[in-house]
Amino acid sequence: MIDWFFIGLAVALGGGEGSASGSDAAQAGANEAAPSAGFEAEDQTPSGKFTTAAEIRPIIEATRGNWVAVREYDGQDLLYLTHLLSWRCGMHQVSVAVNGGAMEIWDMPVCQTKTAAPNAFPDGAVIYKSFGLGEIESIAVEILYDDLGTAEGLFGRKEVLMP
């Protein structure tokens, strides 16, 4: 239900590039990039099911602060990408780096395009990864949309730590 709020907000704001503030805030997004090896731009005809970059980009930009979350649980740091994965059908890939390390491509479940809810998580979907307790200090994210546009964000632990 809250997703409809964010959709309305994104539409009202025109889906712009958002703004960054603070040293750990997300960096500029929706940049046009040179075509990435192995990917081609996909048709951006709106599907009504949020399966194209044209449909999801305004939502992703308006909800930039929700891209990632860190949870301390059972003696571990859990890094969640649930929000981004919920809108994955308009993306080719999402890459993540922890603490300035190398970017790693996050495995995303296949979109369920033949269903009423193509972005629904199938059984066994990986929505988080485990790290040592207190290990995660910063998270960098790179999104490659299915129109070959990109977005990037950098988040500090305090910004995304769940209570």
Topology, please?
Blueprint: H1 2-13, E1 31-32, H2 53-62, E2 69-73, E3 76-80, H3 82-85, E4 91-98, E5 104-106, E6 128-132, E7 138-145, E8 149-156, H4 157-160
Antiparallel strand pairs: 1-8, 2-3, 3-6, 4-5, 4-7, 7-8
Helix pairs in contact: 1-2
**Low-confidence spans:** 1-35
- Number of E strands: 8
Average pLDDT, all residues:
82
Number of helices: 4
Characterize the largest beta sheet: strand count, sense, and whether it forms a barrel.
5 strands, antiparallel
Structure characterization notes:
The chain is of the alpha+beta class and 163 residues long. The chain has one domain (2-19, 28-160). Helices cover 18% and strands 27% of the residues. Strands 1-8-7-4-5 form a five-stranded antiparallel beta sheet. Strands 2-3-6 form a three-stranded antiparallel beta sheet, with no helix packed on it. Strand 4 (91-98) and strand 5 form a beta hairpin. Helix 1 packs across helix 2. The relative contact order is 0.24.
